[in-house]
Design a protein that fits this description.
The protein is built from 13 helices and twelve strands. The termini are far apart. The structure holds NADPH dihydro-nicotinamide-adenine-dinucleotide phosphate and ketopantoate. Ketopantoate binds next to helix 7. Catalyzes the NADPH-dependent reduction of ketopantoate into pantoic acid. Belongs to the ketopantoate reductase family.
């Protein structure tokens, strides 16, 4: 029987995953919002540095409820929306007893709301390497890297969760995607977080892509590495072996991009588009974990405060006052 996948959040990452899953033989329905008309009319067009110009043609829906009615029940719901607290509630209409929920998002501790809301469903945690941007509705530009690390949450999962994880990987791989299954993917999550915790807010605050930010001053490379190093102390205290060599390796892509041109991290795209920022998923949750572990993290705390300020400048609330002079 054909595997049915619902994609929730068809932006840069979701669009590319829709393409792999469709090509891998799944029947894919994509929940689209601002790009609904574009994707309905023309599908998703991907300009990839890895495999050229391709198009995906998922079925399209405006909500999970609409998708469930027309194409459910779904074997998998792949969440590729930004990691915000309310998103888990928006998929509920499409969660059936056997649906596995695959989270493809940056950040740490992003699984908790899903595990609490859907305690009987398999949760698969996904760590995304995919430099990608939606340049206009339904049009995606993808850089020369693609890797997805997945594993059941909480690890190691039940035998049936492990089976669902392996089956997802097979479809993704059959569609041309590079994917690695881990018994516990959290070490990978911390490793990726080290990059995002530093690059995403620092690029968003300076409004520079990663390569230009890296070379913007003599002090910047050390400032970036210091934040990443501080985060590794939290990862290690939390029980995950994230070595400094691996951190250096993470940063090597930014260094390589000195030659080829930089990547604008997703948080900078959000700032430019005046959209909400993933401040808690990428920064706040790790700072909370550091406090719980009794660790001092002055660099992370400062960056978190600045990212919160940046977010507040995009969405000020009743505390905001105009200039006094
Ligand atoms: N871009 C990148 O290079 C990378 C991103 N990531 C991570 O992957 C995740 C996805 O990022 P990315 O693809 O860049 O994000 P995008 O902002 O490009 O895509 C998110 C999509 O979710 C949609 N969405 C949000 N809320 C709803 C809703 N209520 N109903 C329907 N659709 C909704 C948005 O619609 P709308 O357009 O209407 O807002 C948008 O199309 C994030 O966690 C990010 O940090 C990880 C690695 C690299
Ligand atoms: C830092 C980067 C580009 C790495 O792929 C990323 O994860 C993002 O844009 O959020």
């Amino acid at each position: 029987m054909t595997t049915k996948v619902l994609l929730f959040g068809t932006g840069g990452v979701g669009a590319v995953y829709a393409y792999f899953l469709e090509k891998g033989g799944a029947s894919v329905t994509a929940v689209c919002r601002s790009n609904y008309e574009a994707v309905l009319q023309n599908g998703i067009s991907i300009d990839s540095a890895l495999f050229g110009q391709v198009t995906a043609h998922p079925s399209v829906a405006r909500t999970a409820a609409e998708a469930q009615k027309a194409h459910g029940p779904f074997d998998y719901i792949v969440v590729c929306a930004k990691a915000f607290p309310e998103i888990h509630t928006l998929i509920s209409a499409a969660v059936s007893p056997k649906t596995a929920i695959v989270l493809c998002q940056n950040g740490i501790n992003i699984e908790a709301p899903y595990a609490a809301a859907y305690p009987s469903n398999t949760i698969i945690s996904g760590v995304v390497y995919l430099p990608v941007t939606q340049t206009r509705p339904g049009h995606i530009r993808m850089g020369p890297l693609q890797k997805l690390h997945i594993g059941p949450f909480p690890a190691p999962g039940t035998p049936s969760a492990q089976e669902q994880t392996q089956k997802f990987a097979k479809i993704f791989e059959a569609g041309g995607g590079v994917i690695h299954v881990h018994p516990d993917v959290q070490t990978q999550r911390w490793l990726k977080l080290a990059l995002n915790f530093a690059l995403n807010p620092m690029c968003a605050l300076t409004r520079l892509d990663d390569a230009n930010m890296y070379r913007s001053s003599a002090t910047m490379p050390k400032a970036i590495l210091d934040v990443m190093t501080e985060l590794t102390t939290v990862a290690r205290a939390a029980g995950y072996e994230v070595s400094l060599e691996l951190i250096q390796e993470q940063l090597s892509r930014t260094k390589e991009r000195q030659e080829t041109g930089g990547k604008e991290p997703s948080m900078l795209t959000d700032v430019r588009e005046n959209r909400a920022l993933e401040v808690d998923a990428i920064l706040g949750n790790a700072v909370t974990i550091a406090r719980q572990l009794g660790l001092e993290t002055p660099r992370m705390d400062l960056l978190y405060a600045l990212a919160q300020g940046l977010s507040y400048s995009i969405a000020p609330d009743e505390r905001f006052r105009p200039l006094g002079m």
